[in-house]
Design a protein that fits this description.
2 helices
Length: 71
């Protein structure tokens, strides 16, 4: 189960990295949103948010796997 735990730890690490990327993308988009179409801006914020949600759900799954292993 060491390989499994390493894989689960990797999910955690990538989720944290994704959070940082999401934050930087939102900051970058905020800086240029006056230059692009408002609908495009809204769409891009939604895409960024959805990608973040996928990463969050992956972390939830990893935590549930940990619970199952611990039992």
């Amino acid at each position: 189960t060491l390989a499994l735990e390493l894989g689960l730890q990797e999910v955690d690490n990538r989720e944290r990295a994704c959070d940082e990327i999401e934050r930087r993308l939102c900051q970058s988009l905020f800086r240029i949103e006056a230059l692009i179409d408002p609908i495009d801006t809204l769409f891009l914020y939604q895409v960024i948010e959805l990608i973040g949600e996928v990463a969050d759900r992956a972390k939830v799954v990893a935590n549930r796997i940990r619970i199952i292993i611990a039992q």
